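Page 47, continued from p. 46.
Same chain as before, 239 aa.
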Amino acid sequence: MIGKLEMVVLDAPDIERLAAFYRGLAGWVASGVDDDWITLDTPDGWQVGLQLAPDHQPPRWPGQERPQQAHLDLRVPDLDAALDRAVGLGGTLLAKNEAWYTVADPAGHPFDLCLKADNPETTLMGVMLDCPDAKVLSAFYAELLGKPVTYEGDGMAMVGNDGEQPVLFQQVADYSPPRWPDPAHPQQFHLDVVVEDFDVAEPAVLALGATRQPGGGRTFRVYTDPADKPFCLTRSEMP
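Result:
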């Protein structure tokens, strides 16, 4: 393990509106608020950051002209009731099938409402990253996060166990990566991974196939993974 998954971060042009959406839909609670950032805590233990991105360009799902780069999977006890709540809060239905509904949040990020009738709560099952090769990217994040590869299938993979903040991978034909920080090819999502020592963690992630990117600050450094998705190594405190 190089670091621990700290939070999933969504870009948005209006973070207050997006926070209100997920608060109403899933009961997420703000634990940190700044001018350009809101941290939301989920009842099931995740942290989700909302990052102000004034030039945010929403994905045009399901095409690859400006594709989604990742999405959240929310488990709900009743699909139609959850959809009604999402639409009432400003979401947009994109697609339906028997097991899940795909909805766009007010920032245009698609997410899935997945049926889990035996649990009355709305829970965050995981974050799924689109990629050109699910096996390659899952191997990268398994080493980065110290989570085992718990599923490999046809174009799909998962690291981490169900209920323990898994990260999932979805192989996409004609994958179009973000070109961070170009807003015409936006990151949309990124992961923050907390580490103890930048000088130890950075050589380790570079050896796995990450690339250091410009930007960052005293408490974070920016990288891209083998699918060119940005992620950050973070330190909560610096000496």
